[in-house]
C-alpha cells in the first residue's frame, strides 16, 4: 500500500508540474499580465483545492467511519486523495522556490513542510488517513481564498464579486478551517495514549502552525476587506488618491491590494 501511495504521489507531482507548464502557453488576463507567475500558481492551487476539498467532504459524508476512527477507518481511495495532495504540495514548493526568494516564501514553505510531513506519515503507514481527510476540509476555505486572490490580481476590488468572495472566505475559514482544526486538536489530546509520542509531536506542530497561520490570515482579511471598507464621514476638501477607491455604495475606502494567502 505504501508503494502505491508513493506512486500516486509521484504521478500527482508530475501532473501539477505539467499543468503549470501548460498554463505558461496560455495568456494571462490583461489585468494580471504584470504578475503572470502568481496568476498561474493560484489557478493551479484553486484546482487542487477544488479536487481535494470537495473530495474530502464527499468522502466523509459517504464514509463517516473515517471520522469515527481516524487511525484505521478508511477506504483505499482516501489514501489516493491524500497522496494527490502530497504531490501537489511538493510541486508547489518547487514552483515557489524557483520563482520567489526565501524571504518572500518562508510562510508557505513552512506550511508545506509540515503538511507534507504529516500526510507522508499517513501514506507510508496506511494509518491516520481519516485524520488527513478531515484536514483536507481546510481546502474548501482555500477555494474561496484563491478566488479572492484572483479577483485582487484582476483589479476587481472593490466590486460585488470581491465582496462576496471576502465574506465567503471568512465564513468558510470558520466552518472549514477553524472547526476542523479544533476537532483534530481535541481528538489528538484525548487519544494521545493511542498515538506514538513522535507522531503526537508532529501532529501538534502541524496543528499549531496551520492554526496560527489561519487565525493571522482571518484577521488580515477582516481588517483589509471589512473594517477598512466601513463608511467614514466625509472629510472637507479630501480628494480620492491612488491609494483610495470608491466602493459600490459610494464611500471612499482604502484597501490593501496585497494578495494575502495561505497555500492549502
What report would you give on this structure?
With 264 residues, the chain is mainly α. It has helices spanning 2-24, 36-62, 65-68, 76-99, 102-125, 129-135, 138-153, 160-190, 197-226; strands at 244-246, 252-254. Helix 2 (36-62) packs antiparallel against helix 4 (76-99), helix 2 packs antiparallel against helix 7 and helix 7 (138-153) packs antiparallel against helix 8.
Average pLDDT confidence is 84
How many beta-strand elements? 2
Q: Strand-residue fraction?
A: under 5%
The major pleated sheet works out as: 2 strands, antiparallel
Low-confidence stretches: 232-260
Q: Ends: how far apart?
A: 25 Å
Integer-rounded radius of gyration: 20 Å
List keywords for this structure.
2 strands, mainly alpha, 264 residues, globular
What is the structure about, briefly put?
By secondary structure, this protein is an all-alpha fold.
Topology:
Layout: H1 2-24, H2 36-62, H3 65-68, H4 76-99, H5 102-125, H6 129-135, H7 138-153, H8 160-190, H9 197-226, E1 244-246, E2 252-254
Antiparallel strand pairs: 1-2
Helix pairs in contact: 1-2, 1-4, 2-4, 2-7, 4-5, 4-6, 5-9, 7-8, 8-9
Amino acid at each position: 500500500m505504501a508503494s502505491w501511495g508513493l506512486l500516486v504521489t509521484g504521478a500527482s507531482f508530475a501532473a501539477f508540474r505539467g499543468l503549470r507548464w501548460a498554463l505558461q502557453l496560455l495568456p494571462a488576463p490583461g489585468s494580471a499580465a504584470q504578475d503572470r507567475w502568481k496568476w498561474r500558481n493560484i489557478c493551479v492551487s484553486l484546482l487542487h483545492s477544488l479536487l481535494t476539498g470537495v473530495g474530502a467532504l464527499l468522502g466523509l459524508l459517504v464514509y463517516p467511519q473515517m471520522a469515527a476512527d481516524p487511525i484505521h477507518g478508511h477506504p483505499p481511495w482516501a489514501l489516493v486523495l491524500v497522496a494527490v495532495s502530497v504531490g501537489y504540495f511538493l510541486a508547489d514548493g518547487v514552483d515557489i522556490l524557483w520563482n520567489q526568494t526565501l524571504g518572500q516564501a518562508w510562510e508557505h514553505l513552512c506550511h508545506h513542510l509540515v503538511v507534507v510531513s504529516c500526510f507522508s506519515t499517513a501514506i507510508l503507514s496506511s494509518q491516520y488517513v481519516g485524520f488527513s481527510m478531515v484536514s483536507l476540509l481546510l481546502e474548501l476555505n482555500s477555494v474561496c481564498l484563491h478566488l479572492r486572490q484572483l479577483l485582487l490580481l484582476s483589479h476587481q476590488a472593490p466590486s460585488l464579486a470581491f465582496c462576496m468572495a471576502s465574506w465567503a472566505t471568512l465564513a468558510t475559514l470558520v466552518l472549514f478551517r477553524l472547526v476542523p482544526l479544533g476537532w483534530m486538536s481535541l481528538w489528538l489530546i484525548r487519544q494521545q495514549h493511542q498515538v506514538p509520542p513522535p507522531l503526537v509531536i508532529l501532529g501538534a506542530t502541524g496543528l499549531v502552525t496551520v492554526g496560527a497561520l489561519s487565525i493571522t490570515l482571518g484577521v488580515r482579511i477582516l481588517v483589509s476587506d471589512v473594517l477598512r471598507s466601513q463608511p467614514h464621514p466625509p472629510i472637507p476638501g479630501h480628494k480620492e488618491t491612488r491609494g483610495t477607491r470608491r466602493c459600490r455604495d459610494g464611500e471612499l475606502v482604502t484597501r490593501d491590494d496585497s494578495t494575502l494567502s495561505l497555500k492549502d
